[in-house]
Structures are given as C-alpha cells and as structure tokens.
C-alpha cells in the first residue's frame, strides 16, 4: 500500500473510531458488502448469458452436434487459466469459505474475487452442468473479507460480513431476501441474534436492490400459483418427501464416487479430456443438462414438458407420456452425474442450482405418474415441480429452512407452506440419518474444520493447535546418564516433564520428575543409570497433521494425562497441557458468545 494511501486510511480509521460506533459501522459495511456481492452475482449472470447467447446459434445450426466439443473447449480455457494465472487447483466455493472461517479467521485472498468471475462463466457458458450460486458467494465473500482486512475489522466481525456477502449474493440471484438470510445462518452456522440479524437483513436488502437496479424486473422464475394446498394431496407430498430424500442420498453419493474416479486421473489434461467428452455425450442425448438449467425449470412450471426436454434423439416418441416421464427421470439421474463430471474435470461451479434442477424434474415425474396411473388422482404438476426443488435442497445441503423460504418467496406467497414443510422435513430427516455430512462438509469434517451449531463443537473447531503447543520443555537423550540429565536439564527447567529424543529429534519416550525423584540424591547412581532405563512411553500422542482439537480433547479425556506430546512431520514439536487447552477454550467461548 502506498504511503499516502496508508496515511489517509489511518486518518479515516481514527475519525471513524471517534465519530462512528462499532455497531453503526458494521451496519454500514453490511450495506456495502451486500451491494458488492449483488454486483458480483449480476456480473456472473450477465457474462454467462453473454457466452451462451454467442454459442446458441451455433448449437442450433449444428443440430446439437456442437454439444460434443463445447464442454471440452470451456474446460481447456479454464485449464490454461489455472495453469498460467491461478497456479493452483480450483476449490469448492462454499467448502473453502467454511474452511476460511474455521481455520483462517475468515481471510480470503484477492484472487478469490476475480477467479470465480472468470472460471464460472466459462464453465457454465460452454455447457458445464453446474450453478453460478457457489462462485457468486465465493467471489462476494472474498470481496467482504478483503474489505474487512483493509478497514482493520476483527475476525469475529469479518465472519459476520462474509455471511452478509453470501446473503447479498443469494438475494441478488433469486430475489429472495429471507431465504438468503436463512442460508447464511444454516450453512455458516451463525448464532441468529439481533446483533447478527440486522447486518444480514441490510446486506440481503442491498443485494436485492442491486439486482433490481441492474436487471429491472427480470426474474428467474416467471410463475404464479394457480392452485394452493389440498388436504387430500398430503399423502402424495409425503411420498415426494421420501423420494427426494433418497434422491438426495443418491446425489451426494454419486458426487463423491465420481470425484474419486477423477482423482485417479493424475493429469489435469486427461481429466478435462475425459470429462469434456462425457459431458458432451450427455448434453447431446439430454440437452436440458446444458448449463444451470433455469430454462428447463421454467418450462416445467409452465406445463410445457416438450419445450423443457428440447430436441433429443427420442423426439419421435415423446407423444407417449410415459416416454416423457422416462426422459424426465433420466434428467433426475444424469444431472448429478453431469454436475460432478464438470467439477471433477476441472470446471468451476456450485451444487445448489443443480439440486433445484434435479428436484424440479423429480417432482414433475412424481406428479405425472400420479396423474397418469388411471386411478382417478389429479395433482398440480407445477406445485410438485416447486416442492421437489425444496426437497432436494433440504436433503442435499441439509438446509430445510432455506428450501422452504426460497420456494415460498419464488411463488410470491405462502400457499404451499404446509406441503413445503412436509416434503422438506421428510427429505432432510431421511438424508440426515443416512449421511452425517453434506457435499459442503464431508472433507472439512475429516480435518476438523467443520463449523457446527453445537457451540462446544464450534469453539473446538475454531481453536488452532499452534496456539496451545508449549515448547519450553528441555529434551534429553537416551544415552545420557542420570547425572548428566540432572545437571543439564532438570536443574535448568521449570517443568517436571522431559521428552526423550533421538539424534533425528524423534520422540522415543518421556521422563516425569516423579520417575527420578527417589534417586535424585543418590550420587552412586549418577553414572550407572541411563535415561533409556528410566524413560517410558507417553500415555497418548497428538499428531499435528491429522488430529483436530476435538480429537485432542478426547485423547486427554481417555488417557487421563495432564500433558501430551505433539508430533509434527514425524518429529517432536512440543507438548499440549490440559490446563492451557482449557484456558484457550474458555477464552474462545467467551469471545464467540459475546
């Protein structure tokens, strides 16, 4: 930062501390963050639609054969950007934000602002079957994080402003401010108090207004309810809840299964080639898999399933409703595959909108099956399409309240609130009992970086091992005599514990002062007793790379020890004491609860 700019910032900060309260400043910042996140979302949408509009004529002219090469072209462009500009693998948007909040005090890099703005439009515009919501949230959160760092905002407030950015981005994309607030609370596990509610509300409003300012009255779903909830349809909504629950399990398992297959392909070039060809083949057979899929959803809501399906190799058979049902069910199956293949091949995008597409297809399938069984039942296909989306959102990302309020706001009212609650609750319960973690959180849970609404788990997740490791223990060598140990280590240490290390600084045992107390004053033993004869194994060992703070706490509990050694990269690093860990826990809890 230039000296003049730094001086000007210092003067501003001094003026702000004197004249603007911290609460007011946070509220002002939340409005700014909401506007910036909304602008990011609008930029992403417009740049993606621009690319799609350029390619649309070519797709029609080639009779869909262009689908075979477009994904490969898009993935190649992203590969070149990552190799020569970004210079590191792309990360999952929401997961990386949660990791940042948990382990990096909410700090995101500057390149996290512009990288999603480049890679996501290239992915989706060239046919990648992913959504723009995740990249919009990532870019907006990075803007918020860097703005917070620029104004010297503390880590806790920075976390709140990152959540505000996510709310602003979602509110801008869906024009649903309430669902945006709830998403921030459910996904980023905020405590919903008036201190956090007002900034989230301001950011959400700011994001919505930004969308209206740049896009006017253009909305994603041009749909209004014609039929409300009917009591006699309750059993069918329960059935839909069960169906979306199992579909959510399929979606999640398929995601991790395909990603594991792509991990076996070591070269990014092979990944993009295999992924590009696979996506192209799926797009040719099932055109609605192209891009985000909002057009597909809108066509289903309007009751035009033929337009939703587009031109397919099965057009000669779509006069048969059961063929249509089979094709829609195929979209339900292949949307998860196409989405994960896009991400595994090196594309950038989110999973939220693909869950909506899959849910809409499944809901429409269920309604069509009910209406065409010949049993005299008749349900609203558009209502089931909407509620299917809620079921998948609730199940896949474990956010039932977000699902309920999002669909309620999309429909412009709460006429479907009861069936939304039924389906979302059932889907969430089934998926939650079958899968402990979501697409966002599974990998984070393995490294102890998972945020939780459980305050105890949350505080442990926010603690850093480096903050509690103590290194003022004097090591001893196994070949040292008792006399050497007493003169060189014990007499010069304030601790009653001594790690025994070999020549490579690897821990081979420990000695506690109580072990040598009976012989400390027996000088006859000074030259005949060696450290290797006195040392013993520690009751438990903490591994720096693999153990999280929850596991560390459990090791203290199970071993009953007061101090445990830490091993880092195979070598001795220091000790963690129970007293220091509990003190750090208490301080973190107080700070988190305020």
TrEMBL record:
What is the annotated localization of this protein? Membrane
- Which keywords does this Swiss-Prot/TrEMBL entry list? CBS domain, Chloride, Chloride channel, Ion channel, Ion transport, Membrane, Transmembrane, Transmembrane helix, Transport
Q: Which residues form a coiled coil?
A: none
Against CDD domains, the record matches this protein to: Voltage_gated_ClC
The protein's topology relative to the membrane is: Multi-pass membrane protein
Q: Which InterPro entries did the record assign?
A: CBS_dom, CBS_dom_sf, Cl-channel_core, ClC, ClC-type_chloride_channel
For the CBS domain, which residue ranges apply?
Answer: 469-528, 535-593
Instruction: Locate the transmembrane regions by residue number.
Output: 20-44, 64-82, 113-137, 157-185, 197-215, 235-258, 270-290, 321-338, 345-366, 386-407, 414-431
This chain's protein is named Chloride channel protein
Species source reads: [Muricauda] lutisoli
């Amino acid at each position: 930062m230039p000296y003049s700019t730094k001086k000007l910032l210092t003067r501003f900060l001094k003026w702000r501390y004197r004249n603007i309260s911290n609460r007011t400043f946070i509220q002002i910042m939340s409005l700014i963050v909401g506007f910036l996140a909304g602008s990011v979302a609008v930029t992403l949408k417009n740049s993606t639609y621009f690319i799609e509009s350029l390619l649309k004529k070519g797709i029609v002219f080639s009779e869909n054969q262009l689908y075979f090469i477009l994904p490969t072209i898009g993935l190649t462009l992203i590969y070149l950007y990552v190799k020569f500009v970004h210079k590191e693998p792309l990360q999952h948007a929401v997961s990386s934000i949660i990791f940042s909040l948990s382990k990096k005090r909410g700090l995101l890099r500057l390149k996290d602002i512009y990288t999603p703005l480049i890679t996501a439009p290239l992915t989706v515009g060239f046919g990648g079957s992913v959504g723009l919501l995740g990249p919009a949230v990532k870019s907006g959160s990075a803007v918020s994080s860097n703005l917070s760092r620029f104004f010297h905002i503390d880590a806790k407030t920075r976390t709140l402003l990152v959540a505000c950015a996510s709310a602003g981005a979602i509110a801008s994309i869906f024009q649903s401010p309430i669902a945006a607030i709830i998403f921030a609370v459910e996904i980023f596990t905020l405590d919903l108090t008036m201190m956090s509610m007002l900034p989230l509300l301001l950011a959400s409003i700011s994001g919505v207004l930004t969308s209206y300012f740049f896009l006017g009255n253009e909305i994603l779903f041009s749909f209004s309810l014609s039929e409300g909830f009917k009591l006699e349809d309750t059993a069918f909504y329960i059935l839909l809840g069960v169906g979306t629950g199992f579909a959510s399990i399929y979606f999640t398992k398929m995601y991790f299964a395909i990603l594991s297959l792509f991990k076996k392909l070591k070269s990014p070039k092979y990944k993009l080639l295999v992924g590009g060809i696979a996506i192209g083949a799926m797009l040719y057979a099932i055109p609605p898999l192209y891009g985000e899929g909002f057009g597909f959803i809108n066509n289903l809501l309007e009751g035009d399933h033929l337009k939703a399906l587009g031109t397919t190799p099965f057009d000669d058979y779509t006069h048969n409703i059961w063929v249509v049902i089979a094709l829609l069910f195929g979209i339900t199956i292949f949307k998860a595959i196409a989405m994960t293949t896009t991400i595994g091949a090196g594309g950038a995008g989110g999973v939220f909108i693909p869950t909506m597409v899959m849910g809409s297809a499944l809901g429409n399938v269920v309604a069509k099956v009910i209406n065409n069984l010949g049993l005299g039942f008749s349900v609203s296909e558009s209502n089931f399409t909407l509620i299917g989306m809620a079921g998948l959102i609730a199940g896949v990302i474990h956010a039932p309240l977000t699902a309920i309020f999002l669909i309620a706001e999309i429909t412009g009212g709460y006429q479907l609130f009861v069936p939304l609650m039924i389906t979302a609750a059932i889907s969430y319960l089934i998926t939650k009992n079958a899968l402990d973690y979501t697409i966002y959180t599974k990998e984070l849970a393995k490294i102890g970086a998972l945020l939780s609404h459980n305050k105890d788990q949350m505080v442990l997740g926010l603690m850093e091992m480096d903050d509690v490791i103590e290194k003022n223990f004097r090591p001893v060598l196994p070949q040292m005599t008792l006399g050497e140990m007493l003169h060189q280590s014990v007499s010069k240490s304030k601790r009653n514990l001594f790690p025994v290390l070999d020549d490579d600084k690897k821990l081979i045992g420990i000695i506690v002062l109580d072990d040598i107390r009976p012989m400390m004053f027996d000088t006859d033993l000074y030259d005949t007793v060696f450290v290797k004869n006195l040392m013993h194994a520690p009751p438990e060992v903490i591994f720096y790379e693999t153990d999280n703070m929850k596991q560390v706490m459990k090791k203290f509990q199970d071993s009953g020890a007061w101090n445990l050694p830490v091993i880092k990269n195979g070598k001795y690093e220091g000790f963690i004491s129970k007293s220091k860990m509990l003190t750090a826990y208490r301080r973190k809890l107080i700070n988190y609860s305020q």
